[in-house]
Amino acid sequence: MEEKKEIPRFDDLKKEAQKEWRKELKKAIPVKERMKIPRQKMPEREHDVRNKDFFEVNLGLSPDQAVEEARRCLDCPNPFCVIGCPVAIDIPSFIKLIEIGKFSEAARKIKETNSLPAICGRVCPQESQCEVQCIVFKSTGVSVAIGNLERFVADWEREKEEILIPQLANPTGKRVAIVGAGPAGLTVAGELSKKGHSVTVFEALHKSGGVLAYGIPEFRLPKRILDAEVDYLKKLGVEILNNFVVGRTATIDDLKKEGYEAFFIGSGAGLPTFMNAEGENLNGIYSANEYLTRINLMRAFEFPNYDTPLPKGKRVAVIGGGNTAMDSVRSAKRLGAEWAAIVYRRTRKEMPARVEEVKHAEEEGIEFLFLTLPVKFIEDERGWVKEMECLRMELGEPDASGRRRPIPIKGSEFRIEVDLVINAVGTSPNPLIPQTTKGIEVGKWGTIKVDFNTMATSIEGIYAGGDIVRGGATVILAMGDGRMAAYSIDLYLKNKNSR
Amino acid sequence: MFKILRREQIVPNMHLLEVGASFVAKKALPGQFVIVMTDEKSERIPLTISDWNQERGTITIVFMEVGTSTKKLANMKSGDYLYALLGPLGMPSEIENFGTVLCVGGCYGIGNIYPMARALKEKGNRVISMIEGRSKFLIYWEDRIKKVSDELMAVTRDGTTKYQGHVPEILRKMISDGKKIDRVVAIGCTFMMMIASETTRESGIKTIVALNPVMVDGTGMCGACRVSVGGSTRFACVDGPDFDGHQVDWEELFFRRAAYINEELDSLQKYECDVYP
């Protein structure tokens, strides 16, 4: 198949930047002046109030703040921020539209390449993607707040104006099946629907959103925001079939017989990883997936108004250093933990969590135990966890991940009193699709193998992306995969037609 | 989407549910289960598929009324709709020609043993079905199971059927009498499955049990249903629910199943106050 990367798409961006209004706007304030403007601070709720409920932490920029922040963008001739963005949003264009007060148009500009801006504006690790590439960041150390601006315009359009449904291409008569209504699958669905294909998303859970629905708590991503963006996709013509687990309810081969011509597998992260430590199946020890699913998807924090229960811990240890660990520990605090801590085997520097989440967690009273590895769990007389035996670690040489390898210090055992432990050390891909799809090639860790230039799997017409190919990454990387796959699937269907 | 076509109490506290779910009916195999939600606030309840009809596009479930979730389900009527139904889930049971297979069903497991016995019989096994309850009035589907078995033994504690006692006593006697049994399949409450496995341990008759740990999503994502089998952690929803009963860490399963006992009582009390004010 023809290999072509659609992004980065500098030619288009440059054309946009050459428009008269952009040139004039750029001249209106000298670069030096723009660089002097301080970064606008995102208003957030008081930490000792917000750590007792599940309402959103960040409150969003005001319109004045957004315009002021937009002025900080230099409208660079070569906008590296776009290269940093996995879905290649035309960042300078949308920011300049904010500067002239056209907020809804800015939102629509983003939606040309990203159908879920209110979500991305909230959960993307901007500091390590677009914002790290920002020229203002490179010269002053403080980047333009791209993520906050994205969130601002998406919220503005949703709250203040009718959401505009873009013109869809003429129907092609081609049917595409998408496995999983998470960030990867939803992205593919939106893109292909805009191109005129008939798209069905098959989702196992009763709610759509994948990790956005079961994994990310209300205080970071309110469900009404997720629902609104899923609703937008439905308005684009995407059909979502919930309560349908591909691999069991029907296999990919069954769906082929039903007339689907192309497939995208975005089945996400599956089985939680356990540490094989003594006592880890004691009551009171959860995988982060279970803990967060109970809270977010099943709303166990409203038990008994909702039927799914969740024991609350007084002393809660969360093992791991990623965003999932932060979400779990901050949830535990909100559910009334007197002591809630992150237990991580390396140091702060190596933690994969977003900087903002770590900062918010610290403000909310979360403790951090670094260079600590749990090795054994001890039960009380009722079979519940009561203590956790840990080893102290030191850092050795860098390993394959580029991070310094943690090494246990002999004889350093010590115990921590706990009554709830949440294991957030990672997940492995769900084996269901590989098990039930003959001939699909799988990598060493059970991930589906793809050509990252096209997201094509070893089987013609089947593409994959997100955690099922990456093992465990971020929402936006999954969306980037989705966008690339959508491009390839569209090309595949067109070529198929002409053969 | 998931219309209830029939909901009836078959014996006290035990209910039958026939639901329209054509996709599931098309794919269902013995040993598989579905996840059901009665309404938006409901738990996700795992229930074994006891029968299915591809032409009608329906599946049949037998369940016991215990906590809030199953009480809610029992209070639903024909014509109502379930909020969600997902399946078929889990690995299908191993159905081969093993020789003589003893299928033991207790409680809701009587319903679950039915498709198992049928499939094993179709594979050419000699099938002995042993169904048990406290008393005759708690035993159901006798005729149905008889039809797919070479021999049916109804066991009751009070002796109101031919065989009096508990499953293990009768099983032990069968073994000591030298009755040919190549495999045992036991489905029912955790205690029954455990003692059935203990009874066959010495004679080494392979004993398959369908485990019933707490589950949430049911598709291998949450890890709530983890069980220790042969010293390693397995997920009942994707690796099971069938496991070798001689390898299962039963004590752990009991503890994990009881994790929410206090919450279950609170929830039930609230539900009963809401429904019967």
Shape verdict of chain A:
globular
**How far is the first residue's CA from the last residue's CA of chain B?**
31 Å
Strand percentage of chain B lies at 25-35%
Structural classification of chain B? alpha/beta
> Unreliable segments of chain B (pLDDT under 50, ≥5 consecutive)?
none
Helix content of chain A: 25-40%
Oligomer: heterodimer
Q: What's the alpha carbon Rg of chain B, rounded to whole Å?
A: 18 Å
Q: Of all protein chain pairs, which has the greatest interface, and how many residues does each chain bring to it?
A: A-B, 45 and 46 residues
Largest β-sheet summary of chain A: 5 strands, parallel
The overall pLDDT of chain B, averaged over residues, is: 93
Give the CA-CA distance, first to last residue of chain A. 13 Å
Number of helices of chain B: 8
Which strands sit side by side, in order, in the main sheet of chain B?
6-1-2-5-4-3-7
Give the overall average pLDDT of chain A.
91
Low-confidence stretches of chain A: 1-7
Keywords:
heterodimer; A: 499 residues; alpha/beta; five-stranded parallel beta sheet; globular; disordered N terminus; B: 277 residues; 16 strands
What layout of secondary structure does this protein have?
The complex is a heterodimer of chains A (499) and B (277).
Chain A lengths: L9 H8 L2 H9 L2 H6 L10 H4 L12 H9 L8 H5 L6 H9 L3 H9 L5 H7 L6 H4 L1 H6 L5 H15 L14 E5 L3 H12 L3 E5 L8 H4 L8 H13 L3 E3 L10 H6 L4 E4 L3 E4 L12 E3 H10 L17 E5 L3 H12 L4 E5 L11 H9 L3 E3 L2 E8 L5 E14 L5 E5 L5 E4 L2 E4 L3 E3 L2 H5 L25 E3 L2 H4 L4 H24 L1
Chain B lengths: L1 E10 L2 E7 L1 H6 L5 E5 L7 E9 L4 E7 L3 H7 L6 E2 L1 E6 L10 E7 L2 H14 L3 E8 L8 H6 L3 E6 L6 E2 L2 H10 L6 E5 L2 H12 L4 E5 L15 E4 L2 E4 L6 E3 L5 H8 L3 H15 L2
Parallel strand pairs in B: 8-9, 8-12, 9-10, 10-11, 12-13
Antiparallel strand pairs in B: 1-2, 1-6, 2-5, 3-4, 3-7, 4-5, 13-16, 14-15
Helix pairs in contact in B: 5-6
